[in-house]
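Narrative of accomplishments. A recurring question from our advisory board has been how the design workflow behaves on a single, concrete structure rather than in aggregate. To address it, we present the structure tokens for one chain from the evaluation set, followed by the sequence designed for it. No filtering or post-editing was applied between the two.
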């Protein structure tokens, strides 16, 4: 494939704050990462607010922004992207939910939100409720990993502003879904359908052979499905069309794959990429180089740093960064001279916060023609000296596609 190409490499949750155990350095500052530093030294750097200054970004909203879609315009919940990520065909106007298989007693009290962390034969349970028709709405359901699944409601006049049926704690009754605004008749309809779906899921699943076998083996039955996190499936123009590129995505988590699939990217599966601290990051690097053979743009999300942040493990985060650095070295060695590499994060996950913070993240653009600046190191503080100064996630594709010379001119 001819013409400029680009890799957008995202270290999930890579950004951090000074960590006492690391001598008040951030994990990026503490890590040995000669290849990331090379991208910074030979590239143009800055800091980036994934959404806007101080806004704590989720991975889904951040990736939408990084791909050029304003999450404030298109995002009402993670349901549609989760559903797309497990291979469901989500259409504009659908209402999608994340779900758990759970265990309830006959008083509808949730005794186990994860149904004994069920891992087997959930496809059979899912098949028994998939396609239920309630009023004029079709209920599509598919299992995901372990006790998880997704529900998509398809039909006229549905709204997404409804409360969860999952009580989020055990020994509590299943909640009734309600519209958040009682005057919102579309969401009231959705709530009615969801409540009926939950009721029918119990009727169907309580005597399902899979659950009979589980009970006989002393395991909690997956006897109800509890939807939460409703989201309205937005209309998004395909990324390839918007940016004049052919795009692929190498990612570890269903949520990122879901966002990518939703905007029409080709999903490249890497079985060795587990999404954990032990993930085979080099296998992802090889998949990126391979995908560049027949795509002009590859997004790669490496999950590990976010895991280290959530788990409050600074050393684990440093190690993930160092392994990611080896992968960056492989990318540098294996791309041709017309290829751009953009290195950044989707948000900060400071080990002191154990969750996503609103701190900005470093970013470096590397490739032909970039205005090389004085920044020598890829970390949160060094890049503030860079020529990009402070940008937003939604700026990234504009900056990249004009470097790639595939962007249409705005005006005459
Ligand atoms: Zn993330
Ligand atoms: Zn996270």
């Amino acid at each position: 494939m001819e013409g400029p190409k680009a890799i957008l490499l995202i270290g999930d949750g890579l950004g951090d704050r000074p960590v006492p155990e690391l001598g008040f350095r951030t994990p990026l500052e503490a890590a040995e990462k000669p290849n990331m530093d090379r991208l910074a030294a030979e590239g143009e750097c800055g800091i980036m607010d994934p959404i806007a200054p101080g806004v704590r970004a989720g991975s889904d909203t951040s990736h939408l922004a990084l791909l050029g879609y304003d999450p404030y315009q298109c995002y009402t919940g993670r349901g549609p992207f989760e559903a797309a990520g497990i291979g469901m065909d989500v259409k504009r106007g659908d209402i999608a939910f994340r779900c758990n298989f759970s265990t309830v007693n006959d008083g509808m009290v949730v005794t186990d939100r994860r149904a004994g962390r069920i891992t087997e034969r959930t496809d059979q349970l899912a098949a028994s409720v998939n396609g239920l028709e309630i009023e004029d709405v079709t209920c599509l359901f598919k299992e995901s990993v372990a006790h998880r699944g997704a529900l998509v409601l398809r039909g006229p006049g549905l709204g997404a502003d409804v409360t969860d049926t999952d009580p989020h704690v055990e020994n509590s009754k299943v909640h009734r879904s309600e519209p958040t605004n009682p005057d919102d008749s579309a969401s009231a309809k959705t709530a009615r359908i969801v409540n009926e779906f939950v009721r029918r899921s119990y009727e169907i699943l309580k005597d399902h052979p899979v659950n009979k076998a589980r009970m006989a083996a002393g395991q909690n039955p997956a006897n109800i499905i509890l939807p939460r996190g409703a989201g309205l499936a937005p209309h998004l123009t395909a990324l390839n069309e918007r940016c004049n590129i052919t795009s692929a995505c190498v990612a570890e988590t269903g949520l990122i794959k879901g966002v990518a699939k939703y905007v029409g990217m080709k999903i490249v599966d890497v079985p060795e990429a587990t999404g954990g601290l032990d993930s085979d990051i080099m296998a992802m690097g090889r998949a990126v180089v391979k995908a560049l053979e027949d795509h002009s743009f590859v997004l790669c999300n490496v999950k590990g740093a976010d895991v280290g942040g959530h788990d409050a493990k600074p050393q684990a985060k440093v190690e993930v960064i160092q392994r990611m650095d080896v992968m960056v070295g492989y990318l540098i060695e294996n791309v041709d001279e017309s290829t751009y590499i953009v290195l950044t994060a989707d948000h900060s996950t400071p080990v002191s916060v154990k969750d996503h913070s609103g701190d900005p993240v470093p970013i470096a653009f590397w490739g032909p023609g970039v205005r090389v600046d004085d920044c020598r190191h890829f970390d949160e503080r060094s890049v503030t000296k860079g020529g990009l100064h402070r940008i937003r996630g939604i700026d990234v594709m504009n900056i990249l596609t004009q470097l790639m010379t595939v962007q249409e001119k705005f005006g005459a």
